[in-house]
Structure formats: structure tokens, C-alpha cells
């Protein structure tokens, strides 16, 4: 027996009304948007953590449903609905050295490591000549 309709077959009779739930708002489109937003938030969070190594970051999915009586039609209620994704704010921190009024970094660029810490490889895996700071050509 269908709990929403009381119908034994599970399908409501033609023209019958059923009680609304989130699966039925906007003929199921609201729920699909909500599901897509969760996937989008996860992708944004994963990308942010990979880029910034910030495991404290958060992505937020906000679902808003507003019910309001329709002033022009008796016994009608409007349902306004929205889904919003708040991706993590991309604030990654790198360090440079200030010396004589200049901001200095290693030839490969600034990083999350101490600026004086010399690197042996560029981010793309190419070795760095530790004497000159230039790419090795082998």
C-alpha cells in the first residue's frame, strides 16, 4: 500500500493529488539540482584541498524552500526553491623573503615552504641546477 495515496497498487488514481515532498518539488527538478550541487561542492572542495593543502576548508550546499500563500488564489501555496553552492575561498599562502625593500623567492617561484629552502625539482618534476637555479638540460 502506498503511504502517500493509500492506493494498493502504488500509483495514484488519475487526477488524484498526493502530499508534496522534496522529491516532488518542481516535478523532481529541485531534488536533481540539490544532488548536482552536492557533487559540485565535493569537486570544488577536493580541488581546493589539492591546490592549497587546506584540509580545514569547507564547501557548503544551501537549499532554501520558501512557502507562501498565494494572495490571488484561495487554497494555493507557492513554493519558491533555490540551491546554492559555496565553494571554499581560494586563499593559498606562499612565502617570500623581504630584503632591502624587495620581495625575493626561489627561481621556481614562491611556495608554502620557507623562501630560503632550496628546491631540487620544479613542480613539474624537472630538476633544478642547484648552482644556477636554472632547469637542468640533460
Could you list some keywords that capture this structure?
single chain, 138 residues, alpha+beta, 2 domains, two-stranded antiparallel sheet, 1 helix, 19% strand
Structure description:
With 138 residues, the chain is an alpha+beta fold. The chain folds into 2 domains: 1-92, no CATH class; 93-138, no CATH class. The chain is 17% helix and 19% strand. It is built from 1 helix and 4 strands, in the order αββββ. The chain has one helix spanning 29-52; strands at 60-69, 77-86, 97-99, 102-104. Strands 1-2 form a two-stranded antiparallel sheet. Strands 3-4 form a two-stranded antiparallel sheet. A hairpin with a 7-residue loop joins β1 (60-69) and β2 (77-86). The longest helix is centred in the N-terminal third of the chain and has 24 residues, at 29-52. It is elongated. It starts with 28 loop residues before the first helix and ends in a 34-residue tail after the last strand. The mean pLDDT is 82.
Biggest β-sheet description: 2 strands, antiparallel
Shape from CA axes?
elongated
Unreliable stretches (pLDDT < 50, length at least 5) are none
Give the proportion of residues in helices: 10-25%
Number of strands: 4
Which whole number gives the mean pLDDT?
82
Distance between the termini: 75 Å
Structural class: alpha+beta
Give me the strand/helix succession. Answer: HEEEE
Count of DSSP-assigned helices: 1
The number of domains = 2
Q: Strand-residue fraction?
A: 15-25%
Instruction: Give the radius of gyration.
Output: 28 Å
